[in-house]
Amino acid sequence: xxxxxxxxxxxxxxxxxxxxxxxxxxxxxxxxxxxxxxxxxxxxxxxxxxxxxxxxxxxxxxxxxxxxxxxxxxxxxxxxxxxxxxxxxxxxxxxxxxxxxxxxxxxxxxxxxxxxxxxxxxxxxxxxxxxxxxxxxxxxxxxxxxxxxxxxxxxxxxxxxxxxxxxxxxxxxxxxxxxxxxxxxxxxxxxxxxxxxxxxxxxxxxxxxxx
Amino acid sequence: xxxxxxxxxxxxxxxxxxxxxxxxxxxxxxxxxxxxxxxxxxxxxxxxxxxxxxxxxxxxxxxxxxxxxxxxxxxxxxxxxxxxxxxxxxxxxxxxxxxxxxxxxxxxxxxxxxxxxxxxxxxxxxxxxxxxxxxxxxxxxxxxxxxxxxxxxxxxxxxxxxxxxxxxxxxxxxxxxxxxxxxxxxxxxxxxxxxxxxxxxxxxxxxxxxx
DNA sequence: CTTAAAACTTGGAGGCATTGCAAAGTTTCA
DNA sequence: TGAAACTTTGCAATGCCTCCAAGTTTTAAG
Lengths: 211, 211
Description:
homodimer, mainly alpha, 11 helices, 2 domains, Arc Repressor Mutant, subunit A
C-alpha cells in the first residue's frame, strides 16, 4: 500500500517550513526572525509551525538530529576485532579525510555555525542533542558490553567528548572561513592527538569478537 | 572608607531576592513560579528583579557560579610536583571524602537537583556554566603549561569531563534520596575508576616544578 | 459515491519572560 | 543644601508558546 496522500503532504509541509526557516535564519540571524515571519513566508499559520516543531530552535536544528544516532550507529556497526573506540575513530577519520559535509567540511558551514554561535538558545539545543547522543551511546555500550559498573557510561563519555571536541574544533575553524581541505588535514592531526589521550582501557572497550 | 550605604543595600536586596526565589522554586518548582511571583514575595518590582539578575534561571543558579572557577582554582593551587590532574583529583577526593555540601553531599541537595532536573532551562544554564568552567580551565592551562598545540584544550576537556561526570553521578544518586555518606563512599570508587581511564599524558600534564 | 470518523489547520485569547523608556525616589558628595 | 549619580518603578510592547473551539481535508467504511 502506497503511503497515503496525507503522509506525503505532511512530510512536504514540514520540509518546506524547515527550509524556509533555515533560509531566513541564515539571512538575518536567529533572533531577528520571528516564528510569525517563518509562518508567513511558508504560507501557513503560526499554529501549524508549532504543530510540526516543538520550538523555534528545532526549525534550524532539524537536520542535526541524525547526528544524535551517529555514535551509536558507528559503534553498532563496528567490524570484527574492532573496539567501540576504534570504530568511532575510523568512521570519523573517513569523513574528515573525505572532506565530508557531514562533519561540516563545506564552505556554507561557516554561515550555519555563525547563526548557532550567535544564539544562546541554539547553542543550548545543540548541547541537548549531544547529551542525547551520549545517553544513546551509553545505552548501546551497555547492550554490547554488559551493563556492569560505570564503564559503559565512562567510555561513552570519552567517546562523546572526542566527537564533540573534533566537531567543535572544525566548527570554530570553518567559522573563520578557512579552506575545508586544509581544515580536514589539520583535523586529522587533532584526531591523532586526541586518540593519544585515550587510555588503553577505553581504546579496547567493547571489542567485537571475530565471527 | 567604609562601604557606602548604597552598596550594602544593593547586596542585601540581591541576596534577599535570590533567597526568596530559591525558596519558592524549591517549594513549587521552577516553571510554576513566575518572576512576578518572586518580585511580589520579595516586595520589589519585576524590573528590579531583572536589574539584579539577567534571567529567571540566574535566580536559582546564583550560588553555582563559584563552581565556575573551581577547576581553575584547583589547578592554579596545585602543589609542587603535582600535575593539573593530580590537583583536581586530590581536591575532589578531599571534598567527597569529607562529605562536603560543596559537592552536593547533603540531604537537601535532592530537592535542589530535582528542580534543575525538571527544568530544561535550568539544565541549559548549568551546561553553560560548565562550558565557562572548561574555557576558564583551558585558559589557565595555557598560562601554566604554554599555549602550544591542542594539548591545553584537550587536557582541560578531560578534566572538566571528569569533574562533570562525578558531580553528575552524585546528583543522580542524591536525587534518589540516598544517604550522603554512602554516596560519598561510592563516589570515591567512581573517581578511582575514572582516573584509570585517563592517560599518562593527561595525568602528567602541567606538573608544577618543585620550588 | 456517500458519509462519518480521524487528522490537520486555523484564528483568537492569553500567560509569561524579557526589554525599553521615562518618571519618580534615594544616596552621595561637594 | 542642592545638583549629580544611581535605583526603583510603572507602563507599554515584543515575541515564544499553549490551549481551545471551529473549520477543512483525507481516509476508510458502507
